[in-house]
Write a structure and sequence with these properties.
The protein is an alpha+beta fold. Among the domains are: 109-206, Arc Repressor Mutant, subunit A, CATH 1.10.10; 306-408, Aminopeptidase (3-Layer(aba) Sandwich). Helix content is 35%, strand content 22%. It is built from 13 helices and 20 strands. A five-stranded mixed beta sheet has the order 16-17-18-19-20, covered by helices on one side. A hairpin with a 2-residue loop joins strand 17 and strand 18. Helix 9 crosses helix 10. The longest helix is centred in the C-terminal third of the chain and has 17 residues, at 386-402.
Length: 409
């Protein structure tokens, strides 16, 4: 499918696929259909490396978003595995990417410009540098701290660069502000969490010197944008040339996006694809061409599995794409007033085979050790068969175990 020229690589023929083939390819890439490719703690790490990052969200109704993302596709996954990868093995890091995310620590050098921008912004806050010296000296002696245990009092005018939200400032607690500033600067990392509370320690205590001092692999800002766009395409599997929430956190507009997609195509890193009935061109990483060909020729493993999907799963980063390919409209109703919700507070899509067949609202009552199913909604046209019911019961049992609960329907 790819032809090489003297100075560039370019597609010789646009690949055309059906919407069903697009769905199946994405699910194969995601490890959500067929034999389970991701197993145990090594599988959890392998999936995060493939996705580049998974989003962190502190809300825990039936598992936090990052944990839910992994349980849907990693055989035998437990919440302890992610904790160990983050805070014991140090193979993963909490940091900004697509909002606050979890990504492989090996990617630390790529985010050099993030940390440089954070330091530059930090220099604009009056009194912050003095507080930083105090905080680093305290942590050097006392070890991990949170904003409640760091002995710095008062308030300062400050705001985080983590979400790139402009140059406004507001008064905030000095201890929290200085810890978050040093964290975005790369001086501190998250040592561990208790619930949603973050404890920080010196990065140099946990990350090797060669990683902390590594040169930025991206010599220009355009290189960094290309790296991030390619990574987001790989995280979803197939992305279109359209404004997409899958690119959230990347400073990109339509003009930049088209330029980057063209550059990545000419370099042979992505392959353009047309999908029946959709005018926008889609792109997949060139390394996945063999997998797409298996889907096209019918040799891909498409044995059905059932999974409850996380609301911020990479598969759902672009809900418009999900609606276009699956004809499935999903809205996370956590911020919707109760009287306006169509489904539930924390409703998860149900994937079965290559279709979204329903939604479930399951709540882990950890005091009683029971997983309660508050709501179950099947999509129109879905017929309850013995096979579907068996898959549902098996998935519910696994989901209860994942939440250290027994099942209560």
């Amino acid at each position: 499918m790819i032809c090489s020229g003297r100075n560039k690589v370019y597609p010789s023929l646009m690949i055309s696929i059906s919407r069903k083939q697009a769905r199946q390819f994405i699910l194969c890439k995601q490890g959500l259909i067929g034999a389970q490719r991701f197993v145990g703690k090594d599988g959890a790490y392998a999936y995060i490396r493939q996705a580049g990052c998974i989003q962190y969200d502190p809300v825990d109704v039936c598992g936090k978003n990052a944990e839910l993302t992994l349980q849907s596709r990693v055989k035998g996954f437990t919440k302890k595995m992610l904790y160990e990868l983050l805070y014991e093995d140090r193979k993963l890091a909490d940091y900004a990417d697509k909002e606050l995310s979890i990504w492989p620590v090996e990617d630390w050098p790529y985010f050099t410009s993030y940390r440089e921008r954070s330091r530059k912004l930090g220099n604009t806050f009056k009194g912050l540098k003095k507080l930083e010296k105090q905080a680093l000296a305290y942590i050097e002696v006392n070890g991990p701290v949170c904003s409640d245990t760091l002995q710095i009092e008062g308030e300062i005018f400050w705001h985080s660069s983590m979400h790139w939200s402009g140059n406004w400032q507001k008064k905030s607690p000095a201890a929290r502000s200085v810890l978050e500033q040093l964290y975005t600067d790369g001086e501190l990392i998250i040592h561990h969490k208790k619930g949603s509370r973050k404890y920080y320690d010196l990065a140099k205590r946990y990350l090797p010197e060669e990683l902390l001092d590594a040169e930025n692999p991206c010599k220009k800002e355009e290189d960094f944008l290309c790296w991030r766009v390619l990574r987001r395409i790989g995280a979803v599997g197939l992305l279109w040339d359209k404004n997409s929430t899958a690119y959230l956190g990347i400073d990109i507009n339509a003009e930049k996006r088209k330029k980057i997609l063209d550059k990545l195509t000419k370099e042979g890193k992505i392959i353009p694809v047309t999908v029946e009935g959709i005018k926008q061109t889609f792109y997949l990483p060139s390394e996945d061409e063999a997998l797409l060909n298996k889907v096209i020729d019918g040799s891909a493993d498409l044995r059905p599995r059932m999974a409850f999907m996380a609301p911020l799963d990479p598969l759902f980063w672009d809900k418009s794409l999900i609606q276009a390919l699956w004809d499935f409209k999903y809205s996370w109703e956590i911020y919707t007033p109760a009287d306006k919700r169509k489904y539930g507070y924390y409703t998860l899509p149900i994937l079965y085979g290559d279709s979204f067949v329903g939604r479930i609202e399951a709540v882990a009552d950890r005091k009683e050790g029971i997983l309660r199913v508050k709501g179950l909604w099947w999509e129109e046209g879905v017929r309850m068969t013995k096979k579907l019911d068996t898959a549902l019961q098996s998935t519910l049992k696994r989901f209860a175990k994942f939440n250290d609960c027994t099942l209560c329907m």
